[in-house]
Amino acid sequence: MPSLGRWCSLVLLAGVSLQLLFALSIASMNLRQPLSTAFQRSAIWENLAQARAIEWRHTPVPGKHISDNARKAVIASEDSLFFSHRGADWAAIERAWQRNAQNDRILGGSTITQQLAKNLFLSGERNMLRKGQELVLAWMLEASLSKQRILDLYLNQVEWGDGLYGIEAAARHYFNTSADRLSATQAARLAVMLPQPRRLGQNPNSAYMNQRTATITRRMGAIEIP
């Protein structure tokens, strides 16, 4: 029977192998677009388990077919320091920790890079181990890919409604246009949906959506895309 030390060595080896697999997968994203993400596959299984018939819409597009309005909108809404941090905004994490400490919740304050890491590889489970893995994956993404590539991957994979993924599908669904033709206001409205796309997408012209869209549109003026 293997000793405790042997078991620990095997667990360590498995952990290192998993990180290497993640690193290789991320490096390959310089040349390829993921066909699906862990988050999307989880949503598929959830729909199958509940016997729900959901139309699946996901059409990844090259970065040249994504409007800068879309890039500016998600940065203004989700991660204003995107071009200056290295994967994690520690000040935002600290603020989230302070807000959540009394509610026995797990850290929030995720950057765009962290959100991409979570969507690509991780489950929706919220615990410290998963949060730690998310930070490691965010560092790998920043070390292997350009900021522009990370942003374009995020825009092509993020959820914008029930069964609706990626900026192209969202632009077609909500505005009957393409991702490269989104106006500033349209892009801002899509960005506002991101925290709760299934709920907010059901009424994209609500008073709340209109107010937040105006706010994000104003913030976009201060965002510069290198």
From TrEMBL:
<dbReference type="InterPro" id="IPR011812">
    <property type="entry name" value="Pep_trsgly"/>
</dbReference>
<keyword id="KW-0573">Peptidoglycan synthesis</keyword>
<dbReference type="GO" id="GO:0016763">
    <property type="term" value="F:pentosyltransferase activity"/>
</dbReference>
<dbReference type="GO" id="GO:0009252">
    <property type="term" value="P:peptidoglycan biosynthetic process"/>
</dbReference>
<keyword id="KW-0812">Transmembrane</keyword>
<dbReference type="Pfam" id="PF00912">
    <property type="entry name" value="Transgly"/>
</dbReference>
<dbReference type="GO" id="GO:0009274">
    <property type="term" value="C:peptidoglycan-based cell wall"/>
</dbReference>
<protein>
    <recommendedName>
        <fullName>Biosynthetic peptidoglycan transglycosylase</fullName>
        <ecNumber>2.4.99.28</ecNumber>
    </recommendedName>
</protein>
<keyword id="KW-0997">Cell inner membrane</keyword>
<dbReference type="InterPro" id="IPR023346">
    <property type="entry name" value="Lysozyme-like_dom_sf"/>
</dbReference>
<feature type="domain" description="Glycosyl transferase family 51">
    <location>
        <begin position="56"/>
        <end position="220"/>
    </location>
</feature>
<keyword id="KW-0328">Glycosyltransferase</keyword>
<dbReference type="InterPro" id="IPR036950">
    <property type="entry name" value="PBP_transglycosylase"/>
</dbReference>
<dbReference type="GO" id="GO:0008955">
    <property type="term" value="F:peptidoglycan glycosyltransferase activity"/>
</dbReference>
<dbReference type="GO" id="GO:0005886">
    <property type="term" value="C:plasma membrane"/>
</dbReference>
<comment type="similarity">
    <text>Belongs to the glycosyltransferase 51 family.</text>
</comment>
<keyword id="KW-1133">Transmembrane helix</keyword>
<comment type="function">
    <text>Peptidoglycan polymerase that catalyzes glycan chain elongation from lipid-linked precursors.</text>
</comment>
<keyword id="KW-0472">Membrane</keyword>
<keyword id="KW-1003">Cell membrane</keyword>
<keyword id="KW-0961">Cell wall biogenesis/degradation</keyword>
<dbReference type="GO" id="GO:0008360">
    <property type="term" value="P:regulation of cell shape"/>
</dbReference>
<dbReference type="GO" id="GO:0071555">
    <property type="term" value="P:cell wall organization"/>
</dbReference>
<dbReference type="InterPro" id="IPR001264">
    <property type="entry name" value="Glyco_trans_51"/>
</dbReference>
<comment type="pathway">
    <text>Cell wall biogenesis; peptidoglycan biosynthesis.</text>
</comment>
<keyword id="KW-0133">Cell shape</keyword>
<keyword id="KW-0808">Transferase</keyword>
